[in-house]
Design goal:
This protein has nine helices and 18 strands. It is of the alpha+beta class and 366 residues long. The chain folds into two domains: 4-165 and 284-365, Aminopeptidase (3-Layer(aba) Sandwich); 167-282, Alpha-Beta Plaits. The strands form five sheets. Strands 1-2-6-3-7-18-8-17 form an eight-stranded mixed β-sheet, with helices on both faces. The chain has a four-stranded antiparallel β-sheet with strand order 12-14-10-15, covered by helices on one side. Strand 1 and strand 2 (52-57) form a beta hairpin. Helix 2 (28-41) runs parallel beside helix 3 (90-103), helix 3 crosses helix 9 (354-365) and helix 5 packs antiparallel against helix 6. It is elongated and about 80 Å long. The two termini are 12 Å apart. It binds zinc ion (ZN) (2 copies). Residues 75, 88, 122, 342-343 line the site of one zinc ion (ZN).
């Protein structure tokens, strides 16, 4: 374990990162601070991978590889002069991984370890970019990540077999008809009735996709817009914005196919056109069974207090893209029952979690 001075240096790094919050995809100063910290205090090989950082602990040619990933980005904040704030604790996650880098100094663990500092988690793009552009990912046998989670006992290691966090995406359904004088609406094609029917029926479509299964698949009506305030003109364009969320990305994909087919059929009947756009696409964050069982026994052996979640988290996490490629584990560290919620104005990462998180990561290294 790190000594008190080393732990304080990790907490000081966290506070420094907190003071330079950067939005998704623009984490330059954050990466510079992390690189400088690791170069000064460790002999890890540190590489700028273009939008993300890789630090490597190397022990030998034929040894197995494992990976740990931390996120680095802040969330948008109108009140902050720089437009961003570390309201999700990614400053803490990055500092923790730097602390692990210090613990790896001189260690002989019989394995090689990649520390992955990834940006743009909040938009769902960062993990995807690493997965799509870094072929070495396939050399890694297991990959791990954690998140601090308020609302649970402070320091509890939060585990869940299978799905830990939901898949989600934004879906925009655009329908284009034909304008007409309000006195002769039948001469045009007005999309309002179709979009309204879709808004009313989309929850039944989700139930059909689940076919009685008790997984979560929910639709939130985010926005609807059509026509205007010219009372002489029948509407000709409109859009419905939905957020789809569920335990399985496959369910969401099936629901999208259903919404498309329903809308295309309706448009064909009325001579209208439709288009679909996906936003903020996250897949489910689903743990590998063997990695879960292995970690459970390691955490117990390390004397950590483990709590298992009954339900997957409703929010999404882009680490799910890693877990689709490499078996691994995502887990939480409880931030305290009364700690302000993630993304709220009052939230700041609690440095008191750093030693517990390091014990958990170290248990996975050994
Ligand atoms: Zn967040
Ligand atoms: Zn987060």
């Amino acid at each position: 374990m790190l000594n008190a001075d080393q732990l304080e240096s990790v907490a000081a790094l966290r506070r420094g990162l907190h003071l330079c919050p950067e939005l998704s995809g623009r984490e330059e100063r954050t990466m510079a601070a992390i690189s400088a910290f690791l170069r000064e205090r460790t002999s890890l090989e540190v590489q700028n991978m273009g939008g993300w950082l890789l630090a490597t602990h190397w022990e030998g040619e034929d040894l197995p590889w494992i990976g740990f990933r931390a996120d680095m980005d802040a969330i948008p904040c109108d009140e902050a002069a720089c437009g961003a704030r570390h309201g999700c604790g990614h400053d803490g996650h990055s500092a923790i991984l730097c602390g692990l880098g210090m613990m790896l100094e001189g260690a002989r663990l019989g394995r090689n370890i990649h520390l992955i500092f990834q940006g743009a988690e909040e938009t769902g793009e960062g993990a995807r970019r690493v997965c799509e552009t870094w072929p070495r990912l396939d050399k890694i046998e297991r990959v791990y990540a954690l998140h601090n989670i308020p609302g649970f006992p402070k320091g509890a290691v939060l585990m869940r077999e299978g799905c830990f966090a939901c898949a989600s995406c934004g879906l925009i359904v655009r329908v284009k008809g034909r304008p007409a004088h309000a006195a002769y609406p039948a001469e045009g094609a007005n999309p309002i009735a179709l979009l309204s029917r879709l808004a009313l029926e989309v929850r039944d479509m989700a139930q059909d996709v689940l076919a009685g299964g008790n997984r979560l698949l929910m639709v939130t009506l985010i926005g609807i817009r059509a026509g205007g305030e010219n009372f002489g003109l029948s509407a000709s364009e409109g859009q419905l914005n939905l957020t789809l969320r569920g335990h399985s990305k496959a369910d969401i994909d099936a629901l999208i196919r259903r919404i498309r087919a329903w809308t295309e059929a309706g448009c064909a009947q009325e001579g209208m056109k439709c288009a679909f756009e996906l936003r903020d696409e996250f897949c489910d964050t689903t743990n590998d069974d063997a990695a879960y069982a292995d970690a459970l026994s390691r955490f117990a052996a390390a004397g950590l207090s483990v709590a298992t979640l009954r339900e997957p988290m409703r929010w999404s996490e882009d680490f799910g893209w890693f877990l689709k490629r490499v078996p691994g584990l995502y887990f939480g560290i409880g931030a305290g029952e009364d700690w302000p919620g993630l993304h709220t104005a009052a939230f700041e990462f609690d440095d008191g979690l750093i030693p517990i998180a390091l014990r958990a990561l170290w248990a996975l290294c050994r």
